[in-house]
Design brief:
- A hairpin with a 2-residue loop joins strand 2 (53-55) and strand 3 (58-61).
- The protein is built from two helices and eight strands.
- The protein is an alpha/beta fold.
- Helices cover 19% and strands 29% of the residues.
Length: 135
């Protein structure tokens, strides 16, 4: 008999997801924005998928890669986020694909040595980097 999965932060019934993940352990990232519709295209392009849940004040993505539960939450300006976030990918072609999707929705993407940088319209800054061979 197996025991049900547990979480440090939520009861087991909150572990249910629209996606069958290879693990129950996934970071949860929540970003507060003042214009949820204005930043939605950025995140759909960043993750390369549509959200799994969407309301007027909340949008949730559950991409397989990166393995994260990511939400946007509508908040007044005093509670808006100004985050520096990142995604590490295995190969340069993955980073290039993300950069290409972002450019396709009008986002300026800068490129350095195995690193791409872009910001959403709310000012949250993202870095997409290629994992080095020594990791």
């Amino acid at each position: 008999m197996s025991t049900p999965a547990t979480s440090c932060c939520a009861p087991p019934e909150h572990l249910a997801s629209a996606i069958a993940f290879p693990s129950n352990m996934r970071p949860h990232i929540s970003v507060n924005v003042t214009d949820i519709a204005g930043v939605r295209p950025f995140y759909a392009a960043l993750f390369g998928i549509e959200p799994v849940k969407e309301r007027a004040d909340y949008i949730k993505w559950e991409p397989i890669s990166p393995p994260v539960n990511f939400t946007l939450n509508l908040h007044p300006p005093a509670l808006a986020s100004a985050e520096e976030l990142g995604i590490e990918v295995d190969v340069a072609t993955e980073a290039e694909a993300i950069a290409s999707r972002l450019r396709a929705v009008g986002v300026e993407v800068t490129q350095g040595d195995n690193v791409y940088r872009a910001s959403d319209k709310a000012g949250n800054r993202w870095e997409i980097s290629v994992r080095s061979a020594d990791h």
